[in-house]
Q: What sequence folds into this?
């Protein structure tokens, strides 16, 4: 049996033109033949969106062509030309009137015909035009009446086009999204805007969401911690679907206090000048959800919680009342998502939980990081070898903050030059932040916020989940912040986007800092002032306090090192006993005995309980599931104490320090710090938010555990060595010889990695020095140890 397919288009171009000319002669017999010109393609403005109509193309689907007619320079009519034998319907007349009312100047007539039947409508009234005689004079009167009409119902015109013509509403939706996204885009240094105008890193979560939408999934929750890049995933979703015929994405920015329908109506009103109310938006969505053709995907960014109306809206829009052509993607913080997917008792899944598919978003994985490095290199920005193992550079906000100072540098304008990002975060982050943020009033407010964050960090009675989260993200309890900032100041920072209000899993109202580098800078200043008070009383106790503080806050080792620098600058100097106390606090291995319990926090999973059992078994439990990450028979796990003291020194060693006596500098201290810290027999780097992502290749030897040279620079002490050697070049040869005399395998390996990197630098003198030092000093010294490869 042969299938029969309906062909709605005109068989040939000649047939179409013949039908068109016949319609014109019938509709406008008083006009001379050939005096009317026509356009099957035309456009009109709908608010800030430009909508294009291709009537001929549309005829292949509907058997109806939209044609714009002109008589000389005067717009004459919108012609809705239907195939012969197709009946004229109300929707044909409604569409023609809507097109005519959107055009400027508006044609006074709408003509609808199928060859045998003709209907002429007045654009300004929508009523059928029935002149006493069809003549040029009557047409002139119609134009005069239209010019004096009170005005067209543009709202109704837009509503009609947005409801019955997929080719129109899809364009309008996409341009609405573009307008919203453009308003949220800026330069690299505009940290309060979520998007960099010409930079977008592909994320795996976007691909997963697209797959789910294609499969007909009506509700998708994109979940991740603050600053993980959820907004950019929705932006990428919008971009990737821009040419698709099966779906269009409406990007909606939802403030914490907005409900979904209000945010949708606001977006459409602002972009299309379509004054649609919240209730009208729902009615429009209901109608569209049941209309065959493309699906509408509403991507709501940063949906807050705290009110049941949000839950009710999501449940309503994804219920059976709405059709399958409405899909919703919500980006939410993890704690918001947990509340939405559970019912009010918290004991079983809510309607949202039963309907939704959840897509997690964490730090950049390997594929995403590679894509980010390629995108940066297209802008002449590279990342040093080892950066792929930096847990901090896997955080989107860090990558942006580290890049912002490069693109704002005058030398970046020289297209013959390329810049390179360090492979890990160092004190540069604080320096560049202070150069960029110079508003004293903003700094004052952030100093107060930093005091609140530091006070919270000292409170070990907080829920364990909140303590662990605060070690990865700058968060503060709302009540604590109120002790340091007035209500109106908190409102200001929140309104400007510097702070984000949230609810933690524990039910505690918390506030997340969305410009972490500025808070880090002010926190370092506060710690520096406190350090001055403490160090002049008891240097050893001051060092212990500094290390303890660094362990409880994000980027703690960098903040603490900057605090030491700040304190030295404020006072002019610091007691040598402070550095001595830090040096004497060496990292110590501490085996974890059976029965030891701990908790860890992963941004993509949350809090996990870890138990050390017999025979080296490590059991991890999260969300009711238990997994052994280390089986029996393995060596007992080992934890290291006092690591942060030497991490602080790793950063400080990259700055010149000197011993001053009687107003004269007798000797530099930083080379000695470099030598001592670089002998550390363990890998000396901060633990990242995701241990798997921050893992590096190492070698365990009888002389200590060292980073494989193929991994690049992954320790701050090695970066400090590189900067010392690269800054002074051949002047450091005596220091290198003394370092070799230490016969420390970890020290030699760190020197090897730093010099190998320098041997490829563009500075020919430094490169020649590095190659000479490798060949004549380091490689001969390393040959006395067992070969690793």
A:
């Amino acid at each position: 049996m042969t299938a029969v397919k309906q062909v709605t288009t005109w068989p040939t171009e000649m047939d179409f033109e013949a039908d068109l000319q016949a319609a014109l002669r019938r509709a406008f017999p008083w006009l001379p033949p050939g005096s009317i010109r026509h356009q099957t393609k035309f456009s009109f403005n709908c608010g800030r969106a430009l909508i294009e109509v291709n009537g001929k193309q549309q005829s292949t689907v509907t058997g109806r062509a939209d044609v714009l007619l002109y008589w000389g320079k005067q717009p004459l009519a919108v012609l809705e030309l239907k195939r012969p034998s197709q009946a004229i319907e109300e929707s044909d007349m409604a569409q023609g009137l809507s097109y005519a009312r959107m055009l400027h100047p508006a044609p006074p007539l709408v003509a609808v015909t199928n060859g045998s039947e003709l209907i002429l409508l007045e654009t300004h009234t929508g009523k059928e035009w029935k002149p006493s005689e069809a003549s040029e004079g009557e047409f002139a009167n119609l134009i005069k009446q239209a010019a004096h009409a009170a005005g067209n119902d543009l709202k109704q015109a837009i509503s009609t086009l947005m409801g019955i013509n997929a080719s129109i509403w899809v364009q309008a939706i996409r341009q609405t999204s573009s307008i919203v996204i453009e308003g949220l885009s800026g330069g690299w240094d505009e940290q309060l805007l979520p998007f960099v105008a010409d930079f977008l890193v592909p994320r795996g979560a976007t691909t997963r969401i697209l797959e789910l939408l294609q499969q007909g999934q009506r509700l998708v929750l994109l979940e991740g911690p603050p600053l993980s890049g959820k907004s950019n995933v929705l932006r990428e979703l919008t971009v990737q679907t821009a040419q698709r015929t099966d779906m269009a994405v409406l990007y909606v920015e939802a403030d914490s206090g907005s409900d979904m329908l209000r945010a949708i109506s606001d977006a459409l009103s602002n972009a299309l000048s379509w004054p649609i109310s919240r209730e009208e938006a729902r009615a429009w969505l209901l109608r569209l959800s049941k209309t065959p053709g493309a699906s509408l995907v509403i991507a709501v960014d940063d949906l807050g919680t705290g009110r049941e109306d949000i839950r009710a809206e999501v449940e309503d829009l994804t219920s059976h009342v709405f059709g399958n052509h409405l899909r919703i993607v919500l980006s939410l913080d993890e704690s918001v998502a947990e509340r939405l997917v559970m019912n009010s008792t918290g004991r079983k899944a809510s309607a949202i939980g039963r309907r939704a598919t959840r897509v997690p978003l964490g730090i950049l994985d390997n594929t995403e990081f590679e894509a980010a490095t390629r995108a940066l290199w297209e802008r002449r920005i590279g990342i040093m070898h080892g950066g792929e193992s930096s847990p901090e550079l896997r955080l989107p906000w860090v990558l942006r903050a580290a890049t912002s100072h490069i693109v704002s540098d005058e030398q970046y304008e020289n297209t013959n030059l390329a810049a390179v990002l360090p492979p890990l975060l160092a004190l540069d982050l604080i320096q560049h932040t202070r150069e960029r943020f110079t508003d004293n009033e903003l700094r004052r407010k952030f100093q107060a916020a930093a005091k609140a964050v530091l006070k919270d960090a000292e409170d070990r009675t907080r829920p364990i989940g909140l303590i662990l989260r605060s070690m990865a993200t700058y968060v503060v309890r709302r009540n604590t912040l109120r002790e340091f900032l007035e209500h109106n100041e908190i409102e200001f920072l929140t309104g400007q986007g510097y702070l984000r209000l949230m609810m933690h899993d524990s039910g505690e109202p918390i506030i997340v800092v969305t410009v972490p580098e500025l808070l880090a800078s002010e926190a370092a200043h506060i710690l520096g002032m406190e350090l001055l008070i403490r160090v002049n009383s008891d240097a050893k106790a001051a060092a212990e306090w500094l290390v303890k503080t660094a362990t409880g806050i994000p980027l703690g080792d960098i903040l603490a090192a900057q605090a030491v620098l700040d304190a030295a600058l404020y006072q002019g100097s610091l007691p040598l006993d402070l550095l001595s106390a830090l040096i004497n606090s060496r990292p110590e291995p501490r085996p974890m005995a059976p029965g030891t319990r701990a908790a860890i926090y992963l941004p993509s999973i949350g809090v996990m309980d870890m138990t050390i059992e017999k025979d080296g078994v490590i059991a991890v439990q999260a969300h009711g599931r238990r997994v052994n990450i280390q089986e029996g028979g393995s060596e007992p796990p080992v934890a290291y104490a006092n690591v942060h003291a030497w991490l602080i020194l790793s950063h400080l060693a990259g700055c010149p320090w000197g011993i001053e006596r009687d107003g004269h500098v007798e000797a530099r201290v930083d080379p000695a710090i470099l030598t001592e810290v670089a002998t550390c027999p363990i890998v000396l780097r901060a633990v990242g938010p995701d241990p798997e992502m921050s893992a590096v290749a190492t070698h365990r030897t009888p002389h200590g555990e060292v980073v494989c040279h193929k991994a690049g620079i992954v320790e701050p002490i090695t970066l400090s060595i590189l900067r010392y050697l690269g800054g002074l070049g051949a002047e450091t040869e005596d220091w290198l010889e003394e370092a070799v005399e230490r016969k420390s395998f970890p020290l030699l390996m760190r020197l090897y990695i730093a010099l190998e990197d320098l041997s490829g630098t563009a500075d020919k003198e430094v490169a020649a020095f590095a190659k000479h030092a490798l060949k004549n000093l380091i490689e001969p010294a390393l040959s006395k140890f067992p070969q690793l490869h």
